[in-house]
Specification:
This protein has a single domain, classed as Phenylalanine Hydroxylase, CATH 1.10.800. Helices cover 45% and strands 9% of the residues. It is built from twelve helices and six strands. Strands 4-3-6-5 form a four-stranded mixed sheet. A two-stranded parallel sheet has the order 1-2.
Length: 278
């Protein structure tokens, strides 16, 4: 019985950060989807008939976040926004974004119905395919939505996929996560949280943000570089054991010296754990 309880506890800890929400299963958006076939990828993705309200919501969110980012967002993120051609006037199409990512780093974009089961999510990442929704949150959820929407997926995540080292790391993460078992699964979740979602990077002009969870959040983007946050040097061994609270502004973050350090640090840790081939 003790072993069963321990295993149940580990399984509970293994949930993706996306799966954690106060709204619980009553909100269908937070119930992970299991793919029954291959999702449309690249040019297979049709552009939806967005309403005027949808376009206005995108415009409000894009304009608001971009007003906060000078002096806060990393240069690679801002360059990625330009490479992808993101602007306030139009919700970008996933097919067009896929073409631009393919040219930049050989990644593609798949249209998915919502939150994915973790194995489907990792499988797509391992093949350099980024799963994205194509619906946008309602006006009553401008500051927070319990599940991923296209603003978080496109604005938060895709610009960093134009950065070659980060793009390689994210594919590596998908491959490692597919083979992870037991306690290594929540360890990888923590690594994802403190890098992909809440990562910082040191630049010549100062500490900057590259994590999607910060860059797509009004409150986090102004909080992350403040004196209220304790920042530690990037250390995979420490990161994978560091707990976090999804319901409050982050009190602790980690800062990279470079994205080469991210690739090297993650590669070394996963190989020592036997999650990737030597």
């Amino acid at each position: 019985m003790d072993d069963q309880k321990k295993e149940a506890q580990l399984l509970a800890e293994e949930r993706s950060a996306y799966d954690r929400t106060e709204d619980g299963p009553d909100d269908p958006r937070v119930v992970p989807h299991t793919l029954t076939g291959s999702p449309p990828v690249g040019d297979e993705v049709q552009y939806p008939a967005y309403s005027d309200d949808d376009v206005e919501t995108w415009s409000i969110l894009f304009t608001r976040q971009m007003s906060f980012l000078p002096g806060r967002a990393g240069e690679d993120f801002l360059r990625g926004v330009e490479i992808l051609g993101l602007d306030a006037g139009r919700i970008p199409g996933l097919a067009d974004l896929s073409r631009r990512l393919s040219e930049a780093t050989s990644w593609s974009v798949a249209r998915v119905p919502g939150l994915l089961h973790e194995r489907d999510f990792f499988s797509l990442l391992s093949r350099r395919i980024f799963p994205s929704t194509d619906y946008i949150r309602g006006r009553d959820e401008l500051d927070y939505t319990p599940a991923p929407d296209l603003f978080h997926d496109i604005f938060g995540h895709m610009p960093m996929l134009t950065q070659p080292q980060f793009a390689d790391f994210y594919q590596m993460f998908g491959k490692a996560a597919l083979g992870a078992r037991g306690a290594d699964r929540p360890r990888l979740e923590r690594f994802h949280w403190f890098t992909v979602e809440f990562g910082l990077v040191q630049q010549e002009d100062g500490r900057r943000i590259f994590g999607a969870g910060i860059l797509s959040s009004k409150e986090e983007v102004t909080h992350a570089l403040s004196d209220e946050v304790t920042v530690h040097p990037f250390d995979p061994v420490r990161i994978v054991e560091q707990e976090y609270d999804v319901w409050h502004l982050q009190e602790m973050l980690f800062v990279l010296d470079s994205f080469e350090q991210l690739v090297g640090g993650f590669s070394g840790w996963t190989r020592r754990r036997g999650l990737l081939d030597s």
